[in-house]
Amino acid sequence: MPSRKFADGEVVMGRWPGSVLYYEVQVTSYDDVAHLYTVKYKDGTELALKESDIRSQSSFKHRKSQSSSSSPSRRSSSRSRSRSRSPGRPAKGKRRSASQSREHKDDKKKTIQETSLALPVLVLFAGFFENNTKRYNGEPESTEKNATSCIILEQKLKPDLEIKRVLEQYSLRSRKDDKKKEEIYSEKKTFVAVKPIEKVPAKTKDLEFGGRIGTFMLIFLLPATVFYLLLMCKQDDPSLLNLPPLPALESLWDWRAFGVSLLWFFLQAAFYLLPIGKVVEGLPLSSGRKLQYRINGFYAFILTAAAIGVLLYFQFELHYLYDHLMQFAVSAAAFSLALSVYLYVRSLKAPEEELAPGGNSGYFIYDFFTGHELNPRIGSFDLKYFCELRPGLIGWVVINLAMLLAEMKIHNLSVPSLSMILVNCFQLLYVVDALWNEEAVLTTMDITHDGFGFMLAFGDLVWVPFVYSLQAFYLVGHPTTITWPVAAAITVLNCIGYYIFRSANSQKNNFRRNPADPKLANLKFIPTATGKGLLVTGWWGFVRHPNYLGDIIMALAWSLPCGFTHILPYFYVIYFICLLVHREARDEHHCKQKYGLAWERYCQRVPYRIFPYIY
Fold this sequence. Notes:
By secondary structure, the chain is an alpha+beta fold. It folds into three domains: 10-57, SH3 type barrels (Roll), CATH 2.30.30; 208-236 and 247-481, no CATH class; 482-614, no CATH class. It is built from 20 helices and twelve strands. The strands form four sheets. Strands 4-3-2-1-5 form a five-stranded antiparallel beta sheet. Strands 6-11-12 form a three-stranded antiparallel beta sheet. The chain has a two-stranded antiparallel sheet with strand order 7-8. Helix 8 runs parallel beside helix 12 and helix 13 (418-436) packs antiparallel against helix 16 (470-477). The longest helix is centred in the last third of the chain and has 30 residues, at 484-513. It is globular.
């Protein structure tokens, strides 16, 4: 068992991951199992480093002084030469000996080597220096920047590179010297290329959702909640104290419903694989690689609508979904469980760099629930990205339509009730908006951080279509009459929530994609050590999560058409507030670790999290 070299609290020089630059850091802890030091940089960023990436301050400064002392001597010797003499002739009265000539050639080789190394390093770490040079050099750091104030490093280096090119073109050195220079440069470049920076994947230490015990209970609690809600909606009196009778187990399973569920899933997969729609790149992974995604969710929705229209034309009874909704929910739950098992088994063979940062704890139950692999793919088919929007979200709209038709048939209505129309229209707008802005999902925590396990598989395939359609299902058995003025007020409320939700998300996504966009020139932001900025103007200067605020307002508007007789249709808005408050706490934790002091400054600038002047 090797002993640790650096103690807690010791100030040392730590290498920034992926670079050759060292900065002053403080050791905070040491992992005896992984042999990693947790260090804290001056800006508050905490990272795990290997012992080989840490050096004591004394040894680091010693080497720095040596390199700096040798550089001026070379520059002074080059300046001492007269312009009138040929570079190959020595000064008058100063004949060079053979040893002096060799030393001069060695100095030239060293200069060439250092020059060949300096240029690639400047280009590779230009982005890092933009946000960190002032901080680590002790200069004052501005807390806000404008998107149009970014200066491209290439413009700074262009005059120097042009001068170098002209000097090399008209150089009087022999071709033999040039060939040696090329060989030296090639050798040095090869040396740099074949020495990759090793990345050790960090284990998940902070367990969420109650850790192993909490996730184990959620695996059973989530399906039970869905089944309980569906049973309650079928009752004449859906009061909380009026528990529904348990159905017979054999009545919960229907092979026809299971077959239709499988057909639905693979039909959406076929639409996903169609070569229509643009292909975009996602955000960079920890390895720097970017995955490609085909954006055709809206086209899949149009094709699905056409298929449903054909079924209705041939008088297919879509209200069959209403009569067997419980069997469809059980089938979807069974399929999501089988999919989760497959995802976990295949993740055991996945490379370390492809594991999810939040699902790599080493505990089976926890990793199974949160998702062990970040982006599981079968060829180019991304399973998580596909399930995020396609089967569940489009299925939600189909179930709502089935509830509308069932209401008309059961109550002998020529047109649906006003409450049912509002619920269908509000939620249809939400789904169409998500599919139209499908590219925006690539920047969400579900895609960039969470693995694909039982939590997302069950949530996408079961929870979204069968819980989010609860208002429409409730209205079939418990019709509610509302007046036109009330309907108009509810519509205005939904439009306000939608406007906040969409404009805030668009503002965030556009800034993440291209911070230098002239359309965003009026936005101010706080720079961070990661190179990203934290918006402090617009919606994101109002509250930290304005998109969550818009989501909650819309959720309330979806429940209001059901009246106030029972609390059951308000389960969605209550659940959604709890969900978003919990997600906001997760965001807060991750952002504090990721951005350090910059996030603390942002929180001081924007004190309210979701609800202005309340929370």
